[in-house]
Amino acid sequence: MVQMKLHQKKRQVMIFITLILSWEAGSESIRYSVLEETESGTFVANLTKDLGLRMGELAARGARVVFKGNRQHLRLDPDTGDLLLNDKLDREELCGSTEPCVLPFQVLLENPFRLFQAALVISDINDHAPEFPAREMQLKISEITIPGKVFPLKMAQDLDAGSNSLQSYIISSNPNFHILTRNRKDGRKSPELVLDKALDREEQSELRLTLTALDGGSPPRSGTTEIQILVLDSNDNAPEFAQEFYEAQVPENSSLGSLVITVSARDLDAGSFGEVSYALFQVDDVNEPFEINANTGEIRLKKKLDFEEFQSYQVDIEATDGGGLSGKCSVVIKVLDVNDNAPQLTMSSLTSPIPENLPEILVAVFSVSDADSGHNQQVICSIDDNLPFVLRPSVENFYTLVTEGALDREERAEYNITITVTDMGTPRLKTQHNITVLGHFPGHLVDVSGTGTLSQSYQYEVCLTGDHRTGEFKFLKPIFPNLLVQDTEKEIKESPNCRNNFPLGGSRIHYKGDKQLLHLDITTGNLLLYEKLDRECCAGQQIPVYCFSNYYWKTRGTGTLSQSYQYEVCLMGGTASGEFRLLKPIVPSLMSEVAGMDTAENANFRN
């Protein structure tokens, strides 16, 4: 029932973020590649050529480059069409160990609207050497250990990716050991020391070897550490874990101290040689969120998890007995995603005000995203149903907001639109974005110099509202439809750039000497009849009416030159009724004087 009500109130559009939608305006896909650490301003490509556009079309159509999260890694010169690096890119910072490092972006053309999909591939350079967590590591090996025994060693780390990452390990020449490079499930490579010849504590109680990690660069980079091997007197058994591999799952919103899993090892020796203690085999950034109880083997959470940062961990655990012998196991911990990220809305383009008399005007272009995964990543985008606007999905996670039909500014001059983006997780999270869309008159001309506004001429029908002796009458309706004039009790609706401000004292017309015939009230816009009209004497009058910009008022020597409008007033019937109307405006002219003041010439509006 709740879903049915929601469907009735909202116009909904569902999009799966990971699904690429096909649309005629955005099916193109372009991929560019640059090396990391390339200098800012480096030429990447020419979009005019690659998109098959004409020279200058990018600038004319308002082209822009849009990256997720508004990070502008590229900048576009719309005049030349050149796409340039906006800053020096660090592949390890942008993508970590992910390979390839791909940064999707869109090329947005606003007028007419079109969207091109593109991607920037950051190629790795070998700018990092492998590095061990410590300069020295220590092993304790019993002299009765049988050849072929494998001893895991701590790994080196290399921040580079692909062939430039860590590839292999080598060890200094010696008669007792060789080294193996093991490929782990998490993609990393770990070293293992293999005993080739039995040790004799009486012959040599300590050995020192050099372990070297090599990457695949050309030339390769390397890192080293020293291995100190202490040969122990007879401790017949090393601890052994119940399992070589453990698996566990933990929700990303688990509280600190939560139990993840318990590992267990046993040692068949007696006394202190059979006592086992547990520890993390290697402490680094990867296994930092976890800790282990040395006595019980319980692994607990000591730092908050974030599925969007790491989806799984492989933690190595070491069990050591009282004689220094040790065993090792691995625990794979999978992080379960919960709906902890609200959808994000990025506004790429917004047009306001918009014309009132054109249908399907593009108002806004925006994209939506959700950092969660799976079902939690799916989103619904909607606006209120009672608005004359509609949302349309375009390419991938982009939407356009367009008018559903022609708008009528006289009916409504402003629309407040709330765009709601809701994900499909539990609980559902949402983001709202408010925009205001204004309408304007299509016939209005704006002086782009900023010093004045050129007004539009209008025609009105008027009729006598009462006894002709009072002379009161009202505007009926504008013949020219762009301006609506209501009755004398209400204000005249205004154009946003030109308000009907009348000069002080109103406009007067003298008839038969110095008698005032008509008076235009500056407060209400009412045109008042002061004398009885005589059609046989004078059937028409010209009435100058002034419209000033809402930003300027005329003062002596400064300000904006007003526009003069003249109308013919015609008596409609006999003198008994006093009914008359404004016929049509005579061609507007500039008045040389208003209310006794000289009119200054406007530099942007001339005869």
Describe this structure in words.
The protein has 607 residues and is mainly β. It folds into five domains: 29-123, Cadherins (Immunoglobulin-like), CATH 2.60.40.60; 136-232, Cadherins (Immunoglobulin-like), CATH 2.60.40; 240-336, Cadherins (Immunoglobulin-like, Sandwich), CATH 2.60.40.60; 340-440, Immunoglobulin-like, CATH 2.60.40; 453-598. It contains four helices and 46 strands. The strands form 14 sheets. It has a five-stranded mixed β-sheet. Strands 37, 41, 42, 43 and 44 form a five-stranded antiparallel β-sheet that branches. It is elongated and about 135 Å long. Residues 1-27, 441-512, 544-565 and 586-607 have low confidence and may be disordered. One of its GO terms (molecular function) is calcium ion binding. Residues 30-132, 133-241, 242-345, 346-480 form the Cadherin domain. It comes from Cervus elaphus hippelaphus. It is found in: Membrane. InterPro entries: Cadherin-like_dom (IPR002126), Cadherin-like_sf (IPR015919), Cadherin_C (IPR032455), Cadherin_CS (IPR020894), Cadherin_N (IPR013164), Protocadherin/Cadherin-CA (IPR050174).
Order of strands across the biggest sheet?
A: 1-28-31-32-26
- Beta-strand proportion: 35-45%
Helix content: under 10%
Class inferred from helices and paired strands: mainly beta
Descriptive labels:
single chain, 607 residues, mainly beta, Immunoglobulin-like, five-stranded mixed beta sheet, disordered N terminus, disordered C terminus
